[in-house]
Structures are given as C-alpha cells and as structure tokens.
Amino acid sequence: MSILKSDEELFELYIIISKDKGQPLNHWEVTALLETYGLRDIDAKNEYGFENLFDMAKYMFPFVQEKKGYKVKSIQAYTETNMTKRVIKNYIKGLAFSLPMLVQIVFTLAVGYAIWTSMHANIDRATAISLGTFAALVITGGSAQAIGRKGLFYLKLDEFLLARNVSLLLFGIGVVLIFVMLFFLTFINFFFDLYPVEMYNVAATYYILLAFFFLSLSIFYMFEDYLSIVLLTFSGLMFVYILHTMFKLTVPTAQIYGLVGLNILVMSVGFFKLMKLKDKNSSAEGSILPKPSILFYSLLPYYSYGFFYFTFLIIDRLVAWSAQSVSNPYVVWFNINYELGLDWALVALIFLMGTTEVSIAEFMYRVNDRVTKIRYDNTDEFTHEIYSFFKKFNLSFMLFSIIIILATYLVVYVLYEVYYFQFLENFMQQPTLFIFYVAAFSYFLLVNSLMNTLFMFSLSRHHMPLKAVAYALFANFFVGMILSRLYGYEYAVFGLLAGSIILWIMTFLSIREMFKKLDYYYYSAY
Does residue 497 contact residue 335 with C-beta atoms inside 8 Å? Predict the structure, then answer.
C-alpha cells in the first residue's frame, strides 16, 4: 500500500467529514463518515492509496484525538489573547454596524445635508422623507434579519452555494415585500387622502430608494463586511456632494440621483460577492434549500423580530408627530424639537452598540472554553463561572454607558457654551434637553436588552426575545399615545422609556432563567 496523500491532507479531510458530528468511537464510525461524505472503495484506492475505505478509516482513526487537541488549542488561542486587544477589536467590529448612521450625522452637521437628510429642507419635505425612511426600515427589517441569520449560518458551515441561494431567495422576497408595502401605502393615501400627491410622491420615492439600499446592505452584513458598508455609505455621500457642488443640482435632486447611483453600486458589489461563492470549494453535498414550509417556519421568528424591532425604534416619533396641534396640517407632521432630542441621544446609542459585539464574543468563547475544561458532572461550576462573567460585564457596561451619555451631552454643551456654535442653540433648550435625557436612558436599556437577546439567539432561543419586543412595542405605543395626548408631544418619549424597560426586564428574566440550566440550553442549542 502506497499512501498518496500526506497526513496533513488526510487530517484536513477528517476535519471536513467530522464537522458538526459527534466524536467517532472506533474506525467503523470513521468509515461511515467517509461514506456519508460520498467516498467509495475505488476512491480510497485511486485517490488516497488505500485498499478500501476500511483501511483508510483505520489509518485516520488516530486523528480523532488530534482534532480534539486542535479544538482546545484554537479556543485557548483566543482566550489567552490580551483581553484589552480582544475587547477593542470586537468593539470596533460592533461599532462598524452603526457607523454609517454616525457618518451620515457628522456629514449633515458639517455641510448641512447627507444622503437623504437635510438641515434646510422645509417641513413638508422633511415629513415626507422621514415617513419614507421609516417605512423602508420597517419593511426591510425582517428580510435583513433573515438574510443575515440564514446566510451567515450557511457560510459558517462552508455551505457556500446554499448561502448564495438562500440570500438570493430572501432578497427576492424582500423586493416583493417592498412593492406590496408600496401598493398598500398608495391605496391608504388615495382612499383617506392623508397627504397631497406631490408630498406622497416624495415619500414614495425615498421609500423605494432607501428600501433597496437597506435590503442590499444586508448582504454585506451577512458577509460581516463592515468596512465595505462604511466605504459604500461614504461613496453615497460623495455622490450627493459632487452632484450638488460641481453639477449645481439642488440638494433634493442630488439626493435622488445619489441614491440611484448608490443603489446601483451597492447591489452590483453585493451580487458580485454572492456570485463569487460559486467559485469557492465547498464540502456541501448539494445546493438544494430546505422545503419552503421548513424555511418559512425557521425564518418567521427573524422576520417578525425585525419588523417589531424597527417599528419599536420609530413608533414614538410617529406618536409625537401626530400629537394634536393647530399647526399640524396632516395626521403626522415632522416635529423639529422632538427629532433633535432623539437624534442627539442616537449618537450615544451608536457608541453603545459597539458593546453588543464584545458581549456576545466574550460570552460564547468563555462558554466554549469552559466546556472543554469542566467535567460533565460539574455543571454548577460551569453555570457559576459564566453567570459571574455576565454580572461583571453588565456592571462594566453600565459604567461605560454613563461615560458615553455624559460625553455626548458635554460635547454639545462645550461647543455651544464655550465655542459659541449657534446652530446648537436649539439643543440646549427645552423640551429638546428633556427628550435627550429620557431617550438616552432608554437607549441604554435598549442596548442592554439587545445583549440579552444576542445571548438567547446564540443558544437558539429566539421565541422569548420575539415575545419581549412585541410587548415592548405595544407599551411604547400606548404609553406614548396616552401621555402625549394628556401633557404634550414631548411626553411620547416616555413610551420609548416604558417599552425599553419592559424589553430589558423580560430579556433579563429570561436570560437569568437560562443561566440556571445553562448546560442544558448549551447542549440543546446545537
């Protein structure tokens, strides 16, 4: 017998065939893995130099212990890395998720406009653009969650064709949903005559362009390509800036053409990345997706969560903007003071979002590390160590949040009081200050809730977060509606606070229950 492959190549083969499988107890089980992979006796002889699969399996069986050591070593390599470096790296990764929002805010403050925002837009146009943006976020939120979860799931398994196919399918479903929503909104506006045709056309235009932009970005989130997201967003800003300054187009016209160009660029790059998956070597046995009924059932929680979550983020604005006032000509009318307060708090939210990636990375690697070091019958020690980490991390997050919120306030305060930036005058007046305080605390609770949600998602427990965000949405709406009608539009922010409190309490209680039987939840998750 003359073996045609090196031990390194055979070990790599064993890694592939045993991926996501239990540890083989003997060479017979290794033989079964080779057969499941599609190898035959003739393949063992012609390609690997063995008489048959049984001989090949006997030779490969010692790799079982090598793989075990290989796994432990890879986990230790992460946990033994300097913790400060780990935290900074993952914080930047998490921050990249919301960096496009920050880039847009900074650009707006610097030049007065961005891809779809403008400090000089009249109230009619600001209302139309905002409503179009809200609708785009809500309708694409579910598709973005589904693409990000399912596509990334297949990528992590090296099932590249399945990742490509499911992404294309879900993208197509997202496109259908965009036009269904457009038809529905057009019918509602026509039937109830909510807004003039010109104003509605502006809202519909921005809705279509932004919906395709948000949906296309979900492909990059699936690839975890956050740098491209930032660069593409910056490219969109440059499109608008050049069209306005060099070609002398008005800001609204430049924004429309800029968004068209940005969509073409984002979709082209995104689909190119998907098509490249066909060229990657894959250990997949095929490219056939699960049955539609199974796919629907597995993805429905993510569609629902995305819809509820993004509706939660914007519902208090709609409540505040619809508060009765003699100056409001339409049912929902842009409110500058309320928007300033929320956008100010949104800056704090952006910097807090970076901690979500830190939390889930540290949580999962600590869990995986302790699993390899603690005996199976010592579950109390396992649970205690992970829960201790959870409590310490939450305390650290609380202190970090206080620093971020104070810094967000002090930067504006110093720029206005010390350097006399007069355009910040409205920020330092009531009710904008009041709205900022309440919204900032609400966002602190929201981010902490998202951490709890990610912990549950990582252990395949998505029903509780879905239930929590649904209750939080209803609390946000009803509390905000009641208080804003009794005391004034600014009290709609208490709806955001009430919803955030409910979301935090429900997710915290759920995660605390999980920690009581963490060994069970960890085992049953995979």
Answer: no
pTM to 2 decimal places? 0.84
Say if CB 462 and CB 301 are below 8 A apart.
yes
pLDDT digits (tens, 9 = 90+) for 3-43: 667 777 788 787 777 765 656 767 788 888 888 877 888 87
- Class of residue 268 by CB neighbours under 10 A (exposed 0-12, middle 13-18, buried 19+): exposed
Chain segment 331-344, per-residue pLDDT in tens: 899 999 999 999 99
357 and 477 assigned to the same domain: yes
In sequence order, the 6+-apart residues with CB closer than 8 A to the CB of 54 are 27, 31
Contact 71, 372 (CB under 8 A): yes
Sign of CA dihedral 220, 225, 230, 235: negative
| 151 and 37 housed in the same domain | no
Tell whether 82 is covered by a domain: no
> Do the beta carbons of residue 313 and residue 450 sit within 8 Å?
no
Q: How far is 519 from 371, CA to CA, in rounded Å?
A: 9
Show the domain range for 140. 91-289
Answer yes or no: are the C-beta atoms of 447 and 349 closer than 8 Å: yes
183 & 331 share domain:
no
Q: How far apart are CA 281 and CA 102, in angstroms?
A: 38
Question: Residues 222, 155: contact at Cβ < 8 Å?
Answer: yes
Phi, psi of 355 (to 5 degrees): -75, -20
Question: Which are the contacts of 406, defined by CB distance < 8 A and separation ≥ 6?
Answer: none
- Structural domains in the chain (count): 3
